[in-house]
Amino acid sequence: MSQPLWNPNNVRRESTNLWDFAEQVGVSLRTEGYQGLHRWSIESSGEFWRAVWNFAAGIGDLGDINLEMGDGPKSRFFPNASFNLAENYLRRSDDAVAISYRGENVVERNLTFGELRTEVARVQLALRSEGVQLGDRVATLLPNGPEAVIVFLAAASIGAIYSSTSPDFGADGVLDRFGQIEPKVLVATNSYFYSGTRHDVTDKVAEVARGLTSLKRVVLVAYGDRELSPTSIPNSIAFHEWAPGAANTEPDFVRLGFDHPIYVLYSSGTTGKPKCIVHRAGGVLLKHWSEHLLHCDLRSGDRLMYFTTTGWMMWNWLVAGLSCGVSLVLYDGSPFFPGPTRLFDIADELSPRLFGVSAKYIEAAMKEGLRPIDTHQLASIETVASTGSPLAPEGFDWVYESLKSEVHLASFSGGTDICGCFVIGDPTGPVHRGEIQVPALGMDVAVFDDGGSPLSEGEQGELVCRNAFPSMPLEFWDDAEGRKYHNAYFARFSGVWHHGDFAEWTTNGGMVISGRSDATLNPGGVRIGTAEIYRQVDLIDEVLESIVIGQHVESDTRVVLFVRLRDGLHLSDGLKERIRRQIRVGASPRHVPAVVAQVPTIPRTRS
């Protein structure tokens, strides 16, 4: 086994929520280790998830039945439950800051827990005034600011179904999503900022509104102090006029079942329109509690910062911190504006306990040569979280050498499909270079070969989950017979969730993910993961970003690598050869691209 990059001392280990939780359920981490707790969480699945509810002091009632087993998506957890997700998120009403919002260098705004409850109550009344009822859809096209959180919780409080996209999406992309679920109300911004530039989206909002014939009302939110300009959008109103409310208005909460649909997330849409993934309230509540409280060791009074947009599932994950009594740090805009250390500046200012970013952000910080360990205090940060794509071993090195040496690096991997993680961090265990630490509690994660047999450590195969878990999607929208759902997750291996990641177990009990299995390449019939190529290309200083694809040529696949170089550089024959040599030595001859081509830019999301 390799030496860990970090290992918590006994004081830190035994003061974690995970340690307390294990003791409460009768498992000793001292003698049985995380593996013993994970084994119990699988063998006693219903009891585990009920224990999570109790540990989080859930508001409501789970009922007297744990689990009704079915075939995959037909499983039902806690069918007699009665609760409201928003009521659990809004459990605090004190004067501490609930949301600290920074919109580049344009907006600064704070909301206390009491003010957040009042704002949710006002929007709740406004939604009801529009005729929004149980099961109606409410959609937002907003930056990562307070209004998105407020509208989500107001919709959830009355049993409406929420959905969001980021304002940088094109009109067609928004309509491809919202057009399927037919929202009754759309709350949208008039603009957003990125890299110091204001982007007016009023015309785009008008186009979206015209395309959504289901809309009864369009509510416009001004970005910052800028006044709303008159628009020709029918049935539109300014947010402050729509939801004025009284000073001390309190929300009320409709208690619903475990499987009540809470929000709709979207697949990437690479093969046709995005799939509309409907999540159940109880599933995401329990899943997020298990991850925030146990795997990330968050507790009431902490601050949680995760760089995301409202179009990524990590926004839903971030907002769930409220259900733990945690304050949220929301940032919208470029993470490198007005300077490359912007996120670290905010971390020093607002003191989050958990600082979360994408793996691509860490890679970009490495390429920028950032060393916040030399320039910032970062005293409050105890956990650095990374997700979105596999974090290369060099990214682990950068965190401990250039960000903070005494910190828990929790690399995550899961997805929009489950709004959570299959493999995740363990605050009581060691962090090994390039490895995700553990399978998530309650998740019977395995790696299968093509025939459906489990693979041992060091063997690459398909990431699967062999048991039912609460945050499996309730359904896909407009998929009454469940065929799309079955084909997406259960067609490959009968009764087993197939996630589509190419993965392997390590000798340390952790996991390495080499990319999406549908993005694996097969040159000469040998299956390789794209992450293995990216790791080597990232070591070339001249290359800022890259994308690798497999191109079918006759009866074989050839590897093609596109690279974006630093400004002013040209892809010479010498640089091509150095890239190929690095891949050959660092990975294998099979990984070496047949074509290396320079491109001016790489398509990517803001997250």
Strand count, sense and barrel status of the largest sheet are:
8 strands, mixed
Percent range for helical residues?
25-40%
Count of DSSP E strands? 29
Strand order, biggest sheet?
11-10-7-5-6-12-13-24
| Gross morphology | globular
Proportion in β-strands: 15-25%
Low-confidence stretches: none
> Rg to the nearest angstrom?
24 Å
Description:
- This protein is of the alpha/beta class and 607 residues long.
- It contains 19 helices and 29 strands.
- It has an 8-stranded mixed β-sheet, with helices on both faces. Strands 4-3-15-14-16-17-18 form a 7-stranded mixed β-sheet, with helices on both faces.
- The longest helix is centred in the first third of the chain and has 17 residues, at 113-129.
Please render the helix and strand layout as text:
Elements: H1 10-14, H2 17-24, H3 29-43, H4 45-55, E1 67-68, E2 76-77, H5 85-89, E3 97-103, E4 107-112, H6 113-129, E5 137-141, H7 146-157, E6 161-165, H8 171-181, E7 185-189, E8 191-194, E9 197-200, H9 202-211, E10 217-221, E11 236-238, H10 239-242, E12 261-266, E13 276-280, H11 281-295, E14 303-306, H12 313-319, E15 327-332, H13 342-350, E16 354-358, H14 359-368, H15 372-375, E17 383-387, H16 393-403, E18 408-411, E19 413-415, E20 420-424, E21 438-439, E22 445-448, E23 461-465, E24 475-476, H17 483-489, E25 497-505, E26 511-516, H18 530-537, E27 543-553, E28 556-565, H19 573-586, E29 595-598
Parallel strand pairs: 3-15, 5-6, 5-7, 6-12, 7-10, 10-11, 14-15, 14-16, 16-17, 17-18, 28-29
Antiparallel strand pairs: 1-2, 3-4, 8-9, 12-13, 13-24, 19-20, 20-21, 22-23, 23-25, 25-26, 27-28
